[in-house]
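pinned: reference chain
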Amino acid sequence: MADVVGEGAAGRGTRRLRAEVALKTVAAEPGSPDRLRRVLEQALVFGGATLAAVYAPGEDEDLLCLVESAGVPRTFYGLRDSYPRSGRSAVAGALRTGHARWLGPAELAARTESRRTSGRDFFLAALPTHGDEGGGCLLAVSERPGGFDSDDRECLELIADAVAFPALPAATEDGELPADAFSLAMDTGRVEVGDDILALFGLGPDEFDGKVETLLGLTVPEDLPSLMSVVEADHTALGDRDLEFRVLQPTGPPRWLRLRGRLLPGGEGLPARIVGTVADASTLRAEVTDVARVQRLAAALATAGTVRDVSHAVVTALRGPLRADRIALAELENDRLVVTVLDPPDPESWPQLWRVEWRTEWPDAPVRAMPTLAAALREGRAQIWPAGSPLEPALADVGPGGLAVLPLPAGGRMVGACLIGWDAPHDFGPDERALLTASAGLAGQALLRAHAFDAEHELVGMLQRQLLPRRLPRLPGAEAVARYLPTTAGLEVGGDWYDVIPLPDNHVALVIGDVQGHSAAAATLMGQMRTALRAYAAEGHPPDVVVDHANRLLMDMETDLFATCCYVDVDLEEGSAWCVRAGHPPPVLRHPDGSTEIAEAEGGPPLGVLRQAGFPMSPLGLQPGTVVALTTDGLVESADSDIDTGMARLARELARSDPAHLGLVADALLVGARRSDDIALLLMRYDGMAVRPLRESWTVWRVPQAVGHARRFTRRTLRAWGVPPQDMDAVLLVVSELVTNALVHTDGRVRLDLMLVNRRLRVAVADSSPRTPVKPASISWEATGGRGILLVEAMAATWGTVPVSGGKQVWSEIVLGD
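pinned: its structure tokens
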């Protein structure tokens, strides 16, 4: 490996010299639109950094704003888009003093500007720069044990000296933008455009209405997503933009244009803006060197999250430049080579051994069947076999015109291998060998990191699946279904949840909520909030009190996260409901006639924002056949649609559905859903109870005749309900024992509730004590008490206790006519 690298470095053996050569290569193209990014990528290759970013004074000179970044997303380390120039941040300190600052985990622990969602330690370097636009700061992050060593620091100092901020388009003397420049206001979508840009779009100055949508309508539809990521960028994406797109032409193929812009934060009530230039891409493309390919591969691998992402980045970086016919990247698991990416992916393009060992999508081949490959993995260095080399068929058929095997080292061992094959005889030059060797080292480290990321993601995903309900309960007079779709935009899990909570007296609570963020912390907090709401509901609190208790709990947890929630308490007997919202979209109701409405339910703030917050209750009327739909904002809000438009669309789609098949309705509502955020959907169809229970209640006063009064009330009620006299004795005995226990062992109010449904009588006595009665293990013949619960158990088919607000309810059920 050292020999191969030596050929590319021409005897200059130190990393500093190689960094100097790479920076000179970048500096040779001063007009390159991605020059600053390519300079920062050197920090990933030579400086041992996982993230490199540049901050410079913005339009507000007192604010240091992000200009460009490369590597792992800065939000992973809690780095901000901007820092006050007079603040205590490392960025501001390095710029004020003119000296580099090297901070370790201990120094960072107390700094709020670098809090991180992950638990791993990292090191931070801040070095002052002197760019074309004035002073700035280079920020670099490393996760290696020990942080930045002396070679890393020398290379980072070189990179800081090479940083030059791209100049923003400046207005001419008459206040107009240059002909190739534009300025887009993020809040209105109004854009000022130079005449040259209008000409590239085929428009004259009098034909343009100043709306960005007009320009977007002239682009090739396939390129709209990348353009929308610029036009609708949020505050987390401050920095430079550089992308190519196509515009339609009256005749001939579309024209390629390159947009170079910068998202600038707003201040003092001013909107954020994107400023930049647009030019003909055919005049900007330059030949890419092997050094640049390694740098871009490093940048791609730094942001690759999963093993599959890493594999695709390596294949994309090597297949084209090497003009290879066949390339495979595989992980090494014990004695087997588990392939993660094949190009081409069809089995017929690969040797017989690989086809025999095909497992679902990719092969899983034993290393022992390829001894040449096993030897290369043991030696741990790149091996190249030209055309005609004697190889076993499993390798010879991969590259009959030449084969390269790149062991992928990381953490002191081989984590995988990359196989590259050619059909025609291929000559391997020194530059190509250097490209292969450098790519192998970068890919190995990225694979090791991706393994840890995949394991963390699987763990958090399993946690979230365990925290959601496995199945929904059967409801009397109603049916409920739920769906949950995780986001596909990233690999972190979110905090969306739903729940269906059966409550006494044929009530049910429908709950849906969303914890801020996508992380293990969000998933964990989601489980805690779901459990808390279920517990408060089971205690018998009204909906507003349940939500208020959950809010106070979240405030006491001292977390930076907040949650939104919608809680609907439905009386399945009466067909009425009370809704409480905490910063969450309201329910959508589909009435039996097919009409829909978005419920006008008052709302309070999200949970965890204000301790003294009000959560008003709003009534909902439900006729048999009404469908209640609750969802999180992932279904009704996206980058190109606000939440009001999304709610209206949900109502229209719900109106077109057939409520008889609720599961099919839920699936149809999710068709075509944007997966940029998690989605939770909860539907309940209220059918009405075929048999409505008979209910009566009695408040037991604490007087000497209290038990007698309770018995007389029970006898009158049972007669009115038509209960035969022979069934009354057991019921009266149970009433006597439960009321006596409540009066003797508790203080405060006692309430007796009777309910009859389908020849099953429920007797329940509520009191103010939370202490549950205990059935005695044994009673002597001389004992004067303790037999009450034993008598209740003997007379009733079943009995138990449930918590109610501030106390408990002891209940028993007696089957009449036995």
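why pinned: The longest strand covers residues 255-264. The chain has a mean pLDDT of 78.
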